[in-house]
Amino acid sequence: MKITFYGGAGEVGRSCIRVDGKETTILLDAGVKLAQQNEMPLLGKEGFGDIDAVVVTHAHLDHCGYLPHMYSQGFTGNVYATKPTLELANVIISDYLRLSKPKDVSKHGTEEMVRHHRFLDYFKSYRIGDFEVKLYPAGHILGSAMVELKDTATGESLLYTGDFNMRSTRLLDPAYTEHLKADTLITESTYGGDADVFPPQREVLNGFISSIKETILTGGKALIPSFAVGRAQEVLFILNDYMRSGILPQTNIYIDGMINKAMRIYRHNVIYCRDEIQKQILMSEDDPFKSKFFHVVKGRQERGKIASGNESSIVVTTSGMLKGGPIVKYLQRSAGDPNSKLIFVGYQAPDTPGRKILDGERTIELDGKQVKIEMKVEQYRLSAHADRQSLMRMISRIEGLKNVVIVHGEPQKIVEFSKAVDKKYKVYTPSLGSSIEL
Questions:
Q1: 64, 31 Cβ separation under 8 angstroms
Q2: What one-character-per-residue DSSP string does 155-215 give?
Q3: In the chain, pLDDT over 70 holds for what percent of residues?
Q4: pTM for the complete prediction?
Q5: What percent of the chain is modeled with pLDDT above 90?
Q6: 247 φ, ψ to 5°?
Q7: Is the separation of the CB atoms in 405 and 185 below 8 Å?
Q8: Which of 21, 188, 299, 326 is the most core-located residue (most Cβ within 10 A)?
């Protein structure tokens, strides 16, 4: 088995891994890297011809955003994933194309991409050429999956985690870890650094809710930039729960950007959520996806009115790293208000406006305008990734493991994580464009 890394090696973003078996070639994920200038996998048109299929772990752009580029440049294989992953991918890819307007993507290409969608279920075995493919729940976002590949011609096996979470969340069960077997593990390492030990979730939530309560009581706005898929739904469910219980004062929770479209897909695919969520919908009139506190913003005019108004409120909107989207309008209007807060709840990639603000910059360029940040800036790790301890626990749960390949992390975190992995495994930290022969 040969593994080639077109993206996601030594970096967070543009995940794209080629796996060559004896007779079949599969691409694991095909993402873009969102930075000041978006970056694509090191995979050109000449590299598509011998790829039989793409298997996508989940619907975040750094794992699926390159698909329309591939199909626009002549790729003709199928893309495989769970049903919610492909439905959510259509939403976020559509938004990505609308905002980025990449010149190498055609209408025909996007239509071909959708035409080649193939749904896979968890725990079932499928054949793609000589590979036997099986998906397991990853606990990251709705429909997210870890991918097991077994080359039936050689017997070699591989497990690719994609992004995974070992904790239960408001909507999802944790990643599946029972009876996993593989010769080789390719694992993410987003939070694999020595200091990446997450505090108890209740402690994080208490700080998050207390901060929002303070903002509401002082008359400010709580701006929460979020990914449209995954993080936004978790945040909204948390806010709804605490508001219903009376811990948070009742106020409008505005939902802007592509988040509401993703919410509808979550609702339609609720069988992929925790049993408690399914029962709440089936046995109660209080549908958590349609909270009375949620108000979907309908267009620019309403957005401008909310952003300019004096109403104390909570705004959950895209984009999560402040790279465009409605958050820019809200931030431009509220940045000078010391009673308002910008609250980060997700990962901020290097060189993005969000990362720059977190690192201390207080004058930032947004949509061509210089914005002075005088509002409070806070971060709460409502993470859907595994921390160092969970990453180590995943490795320990895999039977027959020989090789550990570390990807999807900032360089220093990968170095620190690789040193912590048990010496009984052979550890690889690949670079972009490199290959490993197993």
A1: yes
A2: --EEEE--S---S--SS-PPPP-TT-B-SEEEE--TT-STT--PPPHHHHHHHHHHHHHHH
A3: 99
A4: 0.91
A5: 85
A6: -70, -40
A7: yes
A8: 188
Count, residues in the chain:
438
Radius of gyration of the chain (CA): 21
CATH top-level class for 201-379? alpha beta
Of 355, 380, 18, 346, the residue nearest 163 (C-alpha):
346
Whole-angstrom CA distances from 302 to 99, 323, 342, 365, 424 are 20, 21, 20, 24, 59
Domain ranges of the chain: 2-195+384-437, 201-379
Q: Say which CATH topology domain 2-195+384-437 has.
A: Metallo-beta-lactamase; Chain A (3.60.15)
In DSSP notation, 240-300 reads HHHHHTTSSPP--EEEETTHHHHHHHHHHTGGGS-HHHHHHHHH-S--GGG-TTEEE--SH
Q: What is the mean pLDDT of the chain?
A: 94
Phi, psi of 239 (to 5 degrees): -60, -45
Beta strands in 87-162 (DSSP E): 117-119, 125-128, 131-137, 145-151, 157-160
